[in-house]
Amino acid sequence: MIIITMVALAPALAAYGENHSRPQVAASAPQVTVGKPVSRMIADQDEYVGRFVAVDSVEVRARVAGYLTAIHFQDGQIVKTGDLLFTIDRRPFQIALDQARASLAQAKANLAFAETDI
Question: What are the residue ranges in the chain where pLDDT is below 50?
Answer without folding.
Answer: none
